[in-house]
Specification:
About 40% of the residues lie in helices and about 20% in strands. It is an alpha/beta fold. It has a single domain, classed as Rossmann fold, CATH 3.40.50. The chain has a seven-stranded mixed β-sheet, with helices on both faces. A hairpin with a 7-residue loop joins β6 and β7 (about 220-225).
Length: about 230
Amino acid sequence: MRSPIKLEFSEKYDQQHAQEYFLKHQDGLARRMSHKRDEQLARRALALAGEPGLVLDLPCGAGRFWPLLAEKPNRVIIGADNSEAMIATACAAQPPEVVARVRPLQTSAFDIDLPDNSVDSIFCMRLLHHIGESAHRKAILSEFQRVSRDSVILSLWVDGNFKAWRRKKLEQRRSVKAEQDSFQNRFVLPVETVEEEFKAAGFRIQERLDFLPFYAMWRVYVLRKG
């Protein structure tokens, strides 16, 4: 049996961090507006994917998108995360009528505890921008290809926009002062690189949805198998 890959950033999500993560997206007008835009993109992506009936939300975090996923009355939601604390926080924080629609699952995106072709779609928000190693992204995409029978909706940071250009400049300045063992857990990825990785994993790109075109780093991809 293969050992699942474990990354340093994923170990921080204890109960305190999970609660902080839940509160973060409600903190201030800017974050609330950002969340609304995230929801707009997510709704559009789900529509483009054909409003899938069985969705794996991985990582589900604190359940931020559960109310949105539950807007489709007959949709079944599997709320999965590597962190048991995250799942517990989500189940406690989200509306009871929404939580009742969710099947919790503690599992790793590198080794999903579900059979082949077991869900219509995988909904993966706020994960791949943490994955700097190409081999690790390919491992995740391979699991997505195995578990989803139709589509994958995912978000990540891409280059080719103002925020990515500015972040690169900041990181160049920081690297002069940083310790050699400093830990980086967020990455801006070249569009050409990630899109080639999608293709190599057996996906075709149905749609690209940008948070703010030419300005923001966030992009949502709708991928289809085959």
